Queue: 2 jobs
Job 1
Amino acid sequence: MSGFLAQARGRAANAARFLLLAASAVCTAGAAGAAAPLRLCADPANLPFSSEQSGTPGLYLEIGQRIAQALGRELQPVWSLSYWGKRNLRTTLLAGQCDLAIGLPADAGFMGPRLVLSKPILEMGYALVTPNDHAVLRLDDLKGMRVAVQFASPPQSLLATRGDITTVTVMSAEEGMQRLASGAADAAILWGPVAGYVNHAAQHDRWRVVPLDGPGMRWEAAIGFSRRELALRDAVAGVLDRVRAEMPAMAARYGLPGGPPITLADAGPVPSLALVADDTATEIKEGREIFNGTCAHCHGPDAVQSERRINLRLLQHRYGDDMEQVFFTTVTHGRPAKGMPNWSGVFSHEDFIKIFAFLKSVQTGD
Ligand code: HEC
C-alpha cells in the first residue's frame, strides 16, 4: 500500500485535468448491443499503466479492454489523476463516476468495506536495474558501485547499512533511469514498472530489470469496485482467468519486469540460473504450457500456424544449426518493428529453455 501511494505521489502534478471525463470511448468492443459501457477509472498520464494517448493506452487500459470485450460491453475510460490516491477513489469509483479501477493494492483494509476487490491480478514492486552484462544475485555483487534508490523507499533502507555501496538518492524511478543513462549511477533499485517501461520505451532495453523479493519490495494488485457493484465484481471474476492468460504479452509490450523475483540477501546460496535438464519429457510439457499460454496467441496453439512467416515448426528447416541461436536472440530481444515482442524480463532463462525444448520437439521438414 505504501508503494502504491509512493508511486502515485512520485509523479508530476497536473491538477487541471483532474476528473476530466472522456468525451468518447477510445476502445470499442465490437457489437456490444445495448449494454451500458464499462467505465474504467484511469489516469490520463500514468504510463506504463494508463494513458489517454491511443497509441500507448497502457497496461490497465488494455486489461480493461479485454474485460469489457469478454463481457460484451464497450470500454469507456473516465480520466482522473491517480496520485490523489484514496481521495481520488472516493470522488470517482466510490461516488459512482466509474465502475472499476485496476491496480489497487490487494489489501482488504485499503479503503474499508466500501471498496470490494477482485482476486489479485498482478504483482508489482521494486526492481534491480543493472547493465545487461552485469548479473547481480546478492548485495555483495553491488560492492563498489553507485546505486540509485528512491528517497524513502524500502531499497534505500536496504542499502543504508552498507558502507561499501554508494547510494545515489533520486525522487522518482524516471530520475533514477536518467542517472543511469547519464552515467551518474552504475545500477539502481527502482519502482519496477516505471524502470522497465523507461528502459524499454526510451533506453533501447540497455538495462537488465529484475523484480526483487523481500520485505516491502513486492505486493499484489487487484481490481477495485464499489461495494454496490458486487454483481459486476462477480461477472469480472468469471472472465478474469481468460484475461490473465494474455497479461504477460501485454506487460511485455510495456517492458514491465517479469520472471522470477530475486532476493538480494546479504549472503547465502546463489541460485543457479542454468537448468539441469534431466527430464526432457517434463521440460517439453512445461514448455508447451508456457507456449500455449503466451505465444500461441500469435504463433498458433501447439505452434500450428498456416502463415509461414510465423510458423515456428519451420525453425529447423529455416535455420538449421543456427536454430537455437536465432530462437534465444529473438525471444530476448524481440523484433519490435515486426510485431514480435521482447520477452526478456517476462520469462526466465529456464522458461526459454523449456519453450525451446517444446519447439524442438515439433519441427517439421517443410
Ligand atoms: C503479438 C504476437 C506475438 C507473440 C505473442 C509472440 N510472437 Fe514470436 N513472432 C511474432 C512475429 C510477427 C514474428 C515474425 C517476425 C519477423 O517477421 O521477423 C515472430 C517471430 C518469432 C520467432 C522467429 C521466427 C523465425 O522464423 O525467424 C521466434 C523464435 C518467436 N517468434 C518465438 C516466440 C515465442 C517463444 C513466443 C512466446 C514467448 C512468441 N514468439 C510470442 C509475433 C509474436
Job 2
Amino acid sequence: MTQRPSADVVILGGGIVGCATAYYLSKLGVTSVILEKDTVAGHSSGFALGGLNPLGGPGIPDPLGPLSLESFRLHGDLGRTLREETGVDTEYQLHTTINVAYTEEEAEAIRSRLLWQQAQNGFRVEWKEGEDVRAIEPRLAPGMVGGLVTQYVGLVDPYKLALAFLQGAERRGASMRHGIAQGIKYQGDRVVGVQMNSGVIHCERVVIAMGAWSSAASPWVGVDIPVEPLKGQLMRLRVKSPPLLWVSWGDCYAVTKPDDLVWVGTTEELAGFHESPTREAQHSMSESALKALPYLMDAELVRQTACLRPVTPDGLPIVGKVPGKEGVVVATGGGRKGIHLSPIMARIAADLAGTGSTPYDISFLAPGRSMGQATVAASLSDPFRF
Ligand SMILES: Cc1cc2nc3c(=O)[nH]c(=O)nc-3n(C[C@H](O)[C@H](O)[C@H](O)COP(=O)(O)OP(=O)(O)OC[C@H]3O[C@@H](n4cnc5c(N)ncnc54)[C@H](O)[C@@H]3O)c2cc1C
C-alpha cells in the first residue's frame, strides 16, 4: 500500500468549503492537503448562482443571523484581498435584490423578518406595495401584492471564488490531491491519517467538507452527519434587454450576471445523487420565469446545469469538532446558502483544526446535535428560504 506524504491537516472535499478552509488554515500557518475525488469546485460550488444574501434563509435571524452577517462581512474583505493575493477576480459585487410576492401568504412570509433586516447596518431594506415594485423593475409581470427591495447584498462567481481560495492557500504551502477518501485512521481516538483509494495520508487532523456526500463519513467518525443531496438546476439565457436586478418569486429567481446572461433558477429535487439536467426542470423553470418575467419569451437557452446542495434536516450547517474523536472537524451542510456561508464555515473549521478553538458561538451547529422531527422535505415549503 502506498504511503502518501503527511500534512498537518487533510481536508476531505475540494468544494468551496474545503478550499476556503485550506485558505484560512494557511493564514494560520498550518499546512493542509485537500483531497478531492473529482475536480476543484466541480460540483455545487462551481455551478451555484453565487448570491450572497445574509438577511434571509433557514435559521436567519435566529440562531444563524450573527454568523450570516459575519460571513457577508468576510466576503466583502475577500473580494479585495483575494484579488490582491492571487490575481483572481471573483466578480464580487454589491447588488439589489427584490423578493416579489404574488399572494398575501407570500407577502406575510417575506415581511416576517423586516424589522430585524431593517435594523442591520450596511443594508437598505424596504417593503414596496404592488405597482411600486414595477416602477423599479417594469419587466416584472403585473398583479403582485408587493416586494421586498434589499440594497447592498452581494453576488460572486462561486467557481472563481473557490479557485481564488485554493490559489491563496497553495501560495502558503497547501496542496491538492486527487483521490477518494474512504475512511479515517485512528490511534485510540486520535486521528493519525486518512485512508484513500490509493494509500494513506498521514495527518493529525481532518476536516470533513464533502458537501452532499458528507453522510458517507458518518461511520468514519461514529456520529451521524445527516446531510442529504438536494438537487437544483439553473438555466443561462441570452436575451437582448438591459441587465436584470436579482429578482425572486415563489421558488424561482433570475438575475443578469457579469457574463451578460440571465441566470434563471431553480428547482429543489430530492433525487438522490443524480446530477444531470432534465427537460422537466427546464419546462418548470421556463414556465415560472415566463409568468414573472414575460420578456424572457424571446430568450435563447445557452446552458442548463444541475448540482447538489448539501442540506440538513434542520436547515443549519454542521460545523464543529466531532465529540469523542481527537482531531476531527466537520464543515458541511451549507445547503441553499453554502456559497454565502463558506467564509464563516471555513474560518471556524480552520480555527478548530488549526488552533483547537474558535471565538465564534457555534454550539447550535454542533455535529451530533438533535434535529428533532425536522426533515429536508418539510423545509421545501418555506416561502423565503433562499
Ligand atoms: C442551483 C443551485 C444554486 C445555488 N445558489 C446558491 C447561491 O446563490 N448562494 C449560495 O450561497 N449558495 C447557493 N447554492 C448552494 C451552494 O452551491 C452549496 O451549498 C455549496 O456549493 C456547497 O459547498 P461544499 O464545499 O460544501 O460542497 P461541494 O461543492 O459539493 O464540494 C464537496 C466536494 O467534496 C468532494 N467529495 C465528496 N466525497 C468525497 C470523498 N469521499 N473523497 C474526496 N472528495 C469527496 C466532492 O467531489 C465535492 O467536490 C446553490 C446550489 C444549487 C444547487
